Amino acid sequence: MSNITSNITPNEPFAAARFIKEIGRGVKGARSLSRDDACLLYSAMLDGRVSDLEMGAILLSMRIKGESAEELAGFIEAAEASFPALDAPAGDYAPIVIPSYNGARALPNLLPLLALLLGRAGAPVFIHGVTTDPGRVTSAEIFSQLGYTPSLDAKQVAEQFARNAPVFMPIEKLAPRMFRLLALRRVLGLRNSTHTLVKIMQPFATPALRLTSYTHPEYLTTLTEFFSTVAPAGRGDVFLMRGTEGETVANAKRAQQITWIHDGECTVLVQKQEPVDDMPPLPADREAATTAKWIEAALRGEVPIPISITEQVEHCLLVSKNLQSRHAGSHHGSHEHIST
Known about the structure:
CATH architecture of the largest domain: 3-Layer(aba) Sandwich
Order of helices and strands: HHHHHEHEHHEHHHHEHEEEHH
Mean pLDDT: 91
Number of strands: 7
CATH topology of the largest domain: Pyrimidine Nucleoside Phosphorylase, Chain A, domain 2
């Protein structure tokens, strides 16, 4: 974390007016914050030092203006410093980090299938996200139907990895300060910058492969710039794709473009495909119990796994293994390292 906050008392009220004056002038008049100012502001937000009135003004201003890559860099620096980093297990693969904050709205949510296929191949898979979302079916609910219990602390994460099982950790346990800002959606009725940050953060002390999705096209440009030019170095590689209803699993109807971002370079691994006429066999509905039963049948080989997901698994495993090889013996993280 930057040392710009080192002389600040944790409970000291934070005067945010000068920041709001920059970001709050509307779409045409607003200016982006510097990386250091963004880190300073978001640290204060995480620490609960920003008044409710100023917090509302900040969240709405950023929602209208949109985050710049430099702002995201400052925000993520503060965000990743707000919780202790996790240990990665030893093995042939770097951790594969999968955010899950959207769930299923119309299509069945097959993110748990992706995670289980990766885990079955030997990769450590770490999913973090929300446990419930009104009107949607979350990955957490499907994992529960599959018999997997959430990991609530670093010790349970390590135990689950030792069983070669995918880990699901609720965001309120992984990063409680970020969860508090996520929860403001219920107050304001709108998502805020934290919904983007949870999808790009890297919770491990050592390099990992992050699967990251976007919904709005403008975020493709912003996130590509962020990951390729200003993201903290040494944190691993990223697969960036348009989400399937917001989730980072390939669409069973058609493959989305997947861009691999590594060492400042962008490589297209999967080209966008047109929708297929014949739908592959899918769960009969989006409900958690139905989806879980279908995933179990797919893992047993009784129903075919969508080709787009099979291809995504292959790319994840290859890059994760190469990443682990490149960074073998490295124990450098961007924030506090704790032992599990």
